[in-house]
Design goal:
The protein is built from eleven helices and 18 strands. The protein has an eight-stranded mixed sheet, sandwiched between helices. Strands 12-14-10-15 form a four-stranded antiparallel sheet, covered by helices on one side. Strands 4-5 form a two-stranded antiparallel ribbon. The radius of gyration is 24 Å and the shape is elongated. The two termini are 23 Å apart.
Length: 440
């Protein structure tokens, strides 16, 4: 354990009580209350003007403008449209707070008066509707509210605050692009990195957490299955890649059910399959797209090797020569698993329990979704913590439970966060977390 870490731990421990005094908590809550009218306006503006991954030019400009107005040293267009703000406030720890900015190619169906009607051009060059169906508008609003709160309370903390607004989280590219563009040449490497993610099943005003495994690693695999095409009326003269692909899809399900230890989380999903042009022609090839999820490098490798083994052997059993065996590729960068630092997570949850109450801080199961916030751990050199922020009216949650119904999930066109308690809780939680980590 190095001397710098010991000093940070020692001084953080000495001041931990001060960071949670009723006066500090009340100050944060009062500021959150006073900021809410402008934050509500910002939230609805962001919601109505979403931008797709790698296209967040106007959204990034808003984030940069907010940070500049607060006195941050700001760098823009860092890795696509990434924004980083640095505020040095004396000697102390460096705390990084991160938000994402991109939206999804979905048509909103919430019926809200401020629903998005935005259109854009997707990566394939086609026009699409756009919606903040993953709640990044909530994340950004909390981000801005936290920055404003900490600036109003800058006499209460010492250290360096790094605010990162990241583009392209949805396609897994943004964090990697920022790091490669020199994020930590402009900003100091943090002692802690924290973030939140809204949750479509938790009541608004509730915090969800998990120590250790929080979100899964993500691999996007492209798989081309070859065959020997011909007339659909003469299948005996062909090797049908459609049938072969169907066999592969079914066999892939045995990787998780029969090759992976049942206590190790793993997912293999075939999300896209395309082959052929008309009814009566057997095609020469079929293209598949898969998403692979896991929490450990060992399980990830078992999944990938299993797909290769099954596909290759099935192709050979169909009579294909080595020159027509399946071709695989995995899109880079691969998204690592998000593993919350246990000690940091326990520390933050202690703050949240004392602020919001025991019943408002809920331990959660790990999710198999992915998040490139994981990259900010710098190869496990930086303790990170991401926590869930509830967004749904309590009554709706209870009604869904009573009826045995599912609430609209993230990435649903019906996902509609309840703004006020969600944003106020997020700003209060993130601000108190930062104050505690600064040790003041």
């Amino acid at each position: 354990m190095n001397t710098r870490f010991l000093l940070l731990f020692f001084f953080g421990y000495i001041h931990i009580v001060n960071a949670q005094t009723p006066q500090v908590v009340k100050s944060v809550q009062d500021i959150s209350q006073s900021l809410y009218p402008t934050l509500d306006k910002l939230y609805k503006d962001l919601h109505q003007h979403p931008e797709l991954s790698l296209q967040e030019e106007k959204t990034a400009a808003k984030m940069a403008s907010e940070l500049k107005a607060l006195g941050f040293q700001v760098k823009e267009k860092m890795g696509a449209h990434g924004v980083v703000g640095v505020f040095k406030n004396g000697t102390g720890p460096t705390v990084l707070i991160r938000t994402d900015m991109d939206a999804l190619p979905l048509e909103e169906k919430t019926g809200l008066p401020y629903a998005s009607r935005a259109k854009g051009i997707n990566a394939a060059g086609n026009e699409t509707s756009i919606m903040h169906a993953c709640g990044h508008d909530v994340h950004m609003t909390v981000f801005v509210g936290t920055a404003r709160t900490l600036m109003q309370m800058k006499d209460k903390w010492k250290g360096t605050l790094v605010m990162v607004a990241q583009s392209a989280e949805e396609n897994g590219l943004g964090a990697d692009l920022m790091l490669k563009a020199g994020l930590f040449d402009f900003a100091p490497t943090p002692d802690y990195a924290i973030a939140l993610h809204d949750n479509s099943f938790l009541p608004a005003g509730t915090i969800g957490y998990r120590e250790g495994a929080f979100m899964a690693s993500v691999d996007m695999m492209d798989l081309t299955v070859f065959g020997e095409g011909g007339h659909g009326a003469a299948p005996h003269t062909t090797i049908d890649p459609v049938v072969l692909s169907a066999q592969m899809v079914m066999a892939f399900q045995t990787i998780v059910s029969r090759s992976i230890n049942p206590i190790d989380p793993a997912v293999v999903t075939v999300g896209s399959i395309h082959g052929g042009t008309v009814h009566n022609i057997t095609p020469d090839e079929v293209k598949m797209q898969l998403t692979l999820r896991s929490y450990s490098p060992e399980v990830r490798e078992k999944i990938i090797s299993g797909i290769r083994r099954i596909s290759t052997n099935l192709a050979r059993s169909a009579g294909l020569p080595d020159t027509k065996l399946p071709v695989f590729s995995i899109r880079e960068p691969q998204t690592p698993a998000t593993i919350n630092d246990p000690a940091l997570t326990r520390r933050l949850m202690g703050i949240f329990r004392s602020t919001f109450g025991e019943g408002k801080v809920v331990e959660m199961e790990p999710y198999m979704v992915g998040e490139d916030f994981s990259r900010f751990d710098m190869g496990k050199k930086v303790p990170i913590c991401m926590f869930w922020l509830g967004t749904i009216p309590e009554q709706k949650v209870q009604e869904a439970k009573a009826k045995g119904e599912q609430l609209p999930s993230l990435h649903s066109p019906y996902f509609a966060p309840l703004p006020e308690p969600t944003i106020k809780t997020g700003v209060t939680a993130m601000s108190l977390a930062a104050l505690n980590l600064f040790g003041r």
